[in-house]
Design a protein that fits this description.
Radius of gyration: 16 Å
Number of strands: 12
Strand content: 15-25%
Number of helices: 9
Helix content: 40-55%
Shape: globular
CATH topology: TIM Barrel
Number of domains: 1
CATH architecture: Alpha-Beta Barrel
Order of helices and strands: EEEHEHEHEHEEEHEHEHEHH
Structural class: alpha/beta
Length: about 230
């Protein structure tokens, strides 16, 4: 079966802590804009829209690719997030529970849509479901035209390593492993799973990789390229 895998998964730096955007996100980005990370993003709460627009604009000025991840479990909230992503000029919308209306809207506006997979609840989010069922669900979304999938692998109540590998191997679309990647051990597992990308947010703010925020980003980037 054809696989969408990456020998060097992309790091998406999330300016978030516990699934909420930090208030000093612009300041953190300015301190880290010259690091190796190409992809940057944050969540839909709590920054006001005008601040979100300015931050995304600054990211684009620095040549970065931009991501909005929406932690929403209703169609209405997900669609609101999609509207925000378009208004902010984002490249990728991650999150939301899949709906045809959100998918159609994203495709009409040139926004790459990567919805959540599985039963998700809470904030920080928790993922539940049978691995085969999660794979089948993801395959259905790909057939409907999504760009890729947002997989909360390390928020999974079951075997995260098995889930991550199964989804990447069996779903022909980019997969982003999002949430709770907070150690070199997990980075090694991510390299083995070989998704398109993965996110780190809280772990950088909690200094899980040692050093300044910028130093940690480059440490992770170097590790993934080894």
């Amino acid at each position: 079966m054809k696989k969408t895998v990456s020998a060097n998964p992309e790091l998406i730096v999330m300016l978030t802590w516990h699934d909420y955007t930090v208030e000093n996100a612009m300041e953190v980005f300015e301190q880290c804009k010259d690091t190796q990370a190409q992809f940057w993003g944050f969540k839909e709460h709590p920054l006001p829209l005008d601040q979100m627009k300015r931050l995304y604009e600054r990211m684009r000025q620095c040549g970065k690719s931009t991501v909005l991840e929406v932690v929403a479990y209703t169609e209405a909230e997900g669609m609101a997030g999609a509207h925000t992503a378009v208004e902010c000029g984002c490249d990728i919308l991650m999150g939301t529970m899949y709906s045809d209306s959100i998918n159609d809207y994203c495709r009409a506006h040139g926004l790459k849509y990567m919805p959540f997979v599985g039963h998700i609840s809470g904030r920080p989010s928790v993922l539940e479901g049978d691995i085969d069922e999660l794979v089948a669900e993801a395959q259905t979304y790909v057939r409907r035209g999504v760009y890729g999938l947002d997989l909360l692998g390390y928020r999974y109540t079951g075997d995260a390593v098995a889930l991550n590998r199964a989804l990447v191997e069996r779903v022909d679309a980019p997969v982003c492993l999002a949430g709770s990647i907070n150690s070199y051990g997990r980075l090694g597992e991510v390299k083995c799973a070989a998704p398109w990308a993965f996110t780190i947010g809280s772990a950088f703010f909690e200094n899980k990789f040692g050093g300044t925020f910028a130093e940690q980003i480059d440490k992770v980037c170097r590790y993934m390229k080894r």
